[in-house]
Amino acid sequence: MLALPNGLELRPWRVSDADALVAAAQEPAIRQWNRLVVTSQTEACKRIERMHERLQNEQSAIWAIARPDGGQAVGLIGWGDIDLNGGSAEILYWILPSGRGRGTMVEATKRVTQWA
After folding, report:
1. Whose C-alpha in 13, 61, 97, 115 is 20 to 30 A from the C-alpha of 84?
2. Eight-class DSSP state of 70
3. How far apart are CA 60 and CA 90, in angstroms?
4. 32-54 pLDDT, tens per residue?
5. How many structural domains compose the chain?
6. pTM score, two decimals?
7. What is the pLDDT of residues 52-79, one digit of tens each?
């Protein structure tokens, strides 16, 4: 877990965060720039399971931007399409309206860049 300003943190995604993925997939500003197709709780849970599998396989590293102490996820940030041999990855991020306007994504980007 990594602390962020404004009382938020970066932590692994949990099945209990499925609602945030479904909400993000319905948010026009997120859909415009992300390939997030999640239409149900079941699909969201499967996506979260894949996040954990891809982390174990060193293919991605994706965190929830969340309220502390197990609170609600309001965003996502991480590295996708990791190529350890080539030294590259694609940064992935989005934040729900409830998490916007406080510089949270800027700080989250700094944290995951330091992690990499």
Report:
1. 13
2. T
3. 9
4. 998 888 999 999 999 999 999 99
5. 1
6. 0.91
7. 999 999 999 999 999 887 789 999 999 9
Q: With contact defined as beta carbons under 8 Å apart, do 110 and 98 qualify?
A: no
Measured in residues, the chain has a length of: 116
Helix 18-26 × helix 41-56 angle, to 10°: 110
Cα dihedral 37, 41, 44, 49 sign: negative
Which residues are within 8 A (CB) of 99 and not within 5 positions of it... i.e. 6 or more apart?
8, 65, 74, 75, 105
Q: Are 99 and 74 in contact (CB under 8 A)?
A: yes
Q: Is the model's pLDDT at 88 over the cut of 90?
A: yes
115: number of Cβ within 10 Å: 12
Range of the domain at 88: 2-115
